[in-house]
Amino acid sequence: MTLSYIVNTYKTERYKINVQLKGTDYGTWVVFSNYLDYFENYLAHYSTLKNMNELVEHAVKGIFVYKDKEYTHQHQKLWRDAGGNDRGIKPEVSKLVIETIMENVDELNEAIESGDFDVLYDFIKQNKTNKFGGLEIYDTALRIGAKFNIVPKNVYLHGSTLIGLRTLENKKLVEEDLHNKKTVSLKELPEELKGMSPIHIEDFLNLKRMDFMKI
Fold first, then answer.
1. Residue 56 and residue 101 in contact, taking contact as beta carbons nearer than 8 Å
2. pLDDT at residue number 90
3. Staple partner for 161: which of 6, 112, 177, 206, CB 3.0–4.6 Å?
């Protein structure tokens, strides 16, 4: 298996995401035609929100509407793993983050006005709480940014995305110790990923991390 093959698979296969439908306590699959279809429809929801309170709430909680149904994104939905441990973001954590952000809404507006994703990300990071980690900070900034056309210029590293990059390091496909950075630039990544946006590469490194082991 080659990296080119894995990239092509990511670009052409149907995109499946396990979400939580509003009013239920179980996961359900939503299928998009491809990754571009997913990102366009998922992030488009945040552009429709007119009220800052609602935008922040939906961004933090991972709420989005697709085909008139309201879902909680799989990164934030609550579920129980095989060991009986609760996973996802608990309501009290989300509530505290939302309250803290809104208490500093003037600074949020300044971050938005900067038009710089890094500034927006750092604002969310400064106003997060325990058990609201790197992935949740990134997701929140990405969703709020979608409303104002603010997107990352580099690929953010956290969670499974970081694992994917480290696997590419082990395969000698990227520079050693690249995973120690907060973000990586497009020029630091393999040629096969050129032409993809940082948003898509962050997702690709996460979803295809197991396939990298087969290279």
1. yes
2. 84
3. 206
